[in-house]
Each structure stands twice: as structure tokens, then as C-alpha cells.
Amino acid sequence: MWKNYYLQLKLPSSDGKNYETNAANTETVFRIIQSIPSPKAEPFKRWLAKVGYERVQEIEDPELATNKPSLRRLPVAESPL
To answer: How far is Cα 71 from Cα 55, in angstroms, rounded to an integer?
Structure first.
């Protein structure tokens, strides 16, 4: 299904050989993430929606961006240990 939305680029690997690697732009990556039906993907989807919403708010009010740390972190899964 996604074959029309990504490119295959030959990129060098650690062994020095070039391998065809799937590459996509940001919009396509977001669409792929949205299409994942797994419950395990839901925390990431919620985080992505929250960060996207915050970014829109920062565009509307640039002062909000100055009050936040520049690095946004993914939620870390709790360790069972």
C-alpha cells in the first residue's frame, strides 16, 4: 500500500556496502504511523498528537515556545524491573 509514498535510496552501511533503504518524507511517516492498528502504537500516536498540538499553539503564540525546553522527549515505557 505505501509503495507509492516512499523512495528507495542506496545508503552505505557499517560494512561499507550500499543497501536499498526505504525513505519517506515527514507527512508520509506520519500517515504510516496513523495507519498502525496496534494498541501498542497508541501511546506514541497520543504523544505525537500532543506535540503537534503544542507546536500549532507555539506558532499562534511564539512566546509559548520561549517558556519550554527545546527538547521534547518520547514517553519512556515503565520497566518491569
So the answer is: 12
> What was the pLDDT predicted at 27?
84
> Which tens digit of pLDDT belongs to each residue from 26-64?
888 888 888 889 999 899 899 988 988 888 888 888 887
The SS3 of residue 79 is: coil
The domain ranges of the chain are 25-75
CB of 70 closer than 8 Å to CB of 77 = no
Dihedral pair phi/psi, residue 19, rounded to 5° = -125, 145
The model carries a pTM of: 0.53
Helix axes 26-35, 42-60, angle to 10 degrees: 140
Is-contact 46 36, C-beta < 8 A? Answer: no
At residue 14, the 3 state secondary structure works out as: coil
